Amino acid sequence: MAKVELKQPIVAAIAEDIKDAQSIVLVDYRGLTVAQDTELRKQLREAGVIYKVCKNTMMKRAFEGTEFAGLDEFLEGPSAIAISKDDATAPARIICNFAKEADKLELKAGVVEGTVYDVAGLTELAKIPSREVLLSRLLGSMQSPITNFARVIKQIAEQDGEAETATEAPAEEAATEE
């Protein structure tokens, strides 16, 4: 079997992984210990991110004709790829947080929703909270005025209830005196 025939399934697998991906992040994983690599893979897997170590030539072929072709210039040295189909900022966020502990892990570049970012851009994107966090913050800010309004109405109702019992008591006393 020719070498090309052996490589085609690998390129096809990478192409399938990046199909419909919202973001891709390239990293240089040299120097990571096995325990660090295992922990990184675990965190990425929990977030639904695909993480693979692939040959640069295979990735270049898989990127051809896609929005990820801009990453070709960053494919030098050993490279691993983190692919997310759901949360666009998840790979950058997880890898940047992990790189704080494991100083050997280096970001190379990434594509998030069609835009190529360098290391500085990915670091800024990593500061964006996840979609779930943003939605919960939005919901909390929307509920805040309603909650405050409900508290005020409740306090008014309690005050009215106290006022009614205070006015009823003297009227009952006057009726019993007669």
TrEMBL record:
Highest taxon listed in the record's lineage: Bacteria
Protein name: Large ribosomal subunit protein uL10
Record keywords: Ribonucleoprotein, Ribosomal protein, RNA-binding, rRNA-binding
Function: Forms part of the ribosomal stalk, playing a central role in the interaction of the ribosome with GTP-bound translation factors.
Pfam families assigned to the protein according to its UniProt record, in alphabetical order: Ribosomal_L10 (PF00466)
Gene that this polypeptide is encoded by: rplJ
Subunit description: Part of the ribosomal stalk of the 50S ribosomal subunit. The N-terminus interacts with L11 and the large rRNA to form the base of the stalk. The C-terminus forms an elongated spine to which L12 dimers bind in a sequential fashion forming a multimeric L10(L12)X complex.
UniProt-listed NCBIfam families: PRK00099.1-1 (NF000955)
Family: Belongs to the universal ribosomal protein uL10 family.
Annotated source species: Ruminococcus hominis
Alphabetical list of PROSITE patterns matching this protein: RIBOSOMAL_L10
GO CC annotation, single: ribosome
